[in-house]
Amino acid sequence: MIARINHEHAEREKLEQARQELLKRKQALIAENKKRKDDLANLDQDLERFIDAAKPIQKIFEKEY
Question: For the whole model, what pTM was predicted?
Fold first, then answer.
């Protein structure tokens, strides 16, 4: 009976350690996803500025001579 309790305790400790490692990995993935999401948002803003800056050039090419 005591051996069973000791074995169960060891298994629970091992599972808790695995759970903690998975939580750390989850937090790292969440942080990485947030960084990528922010990078994409910034890229979207940069692209909008680029398109706005190119409008005068586009109007010049649209003129018929």
Answer: 0.64
Check the CA dihedral 19-20-23-24 and report its sign: negative
Contacts 24+ apart (CB under 8 A), 37-45: none
Rg (CA), the chain: 28
CA dihedral sign, ordered 8, 12, 13, 17: positive
pLDDT tens digits, one per residue of 22-42? 999 999 999 999 999 999 999
Whole-angstrom distance, CA of residue 60 vs CA of residue 35: 38
Residues 21 and 64: their CA atoms lie apart, in Å, by 65
63 has a pLDDT exceeding 90: no
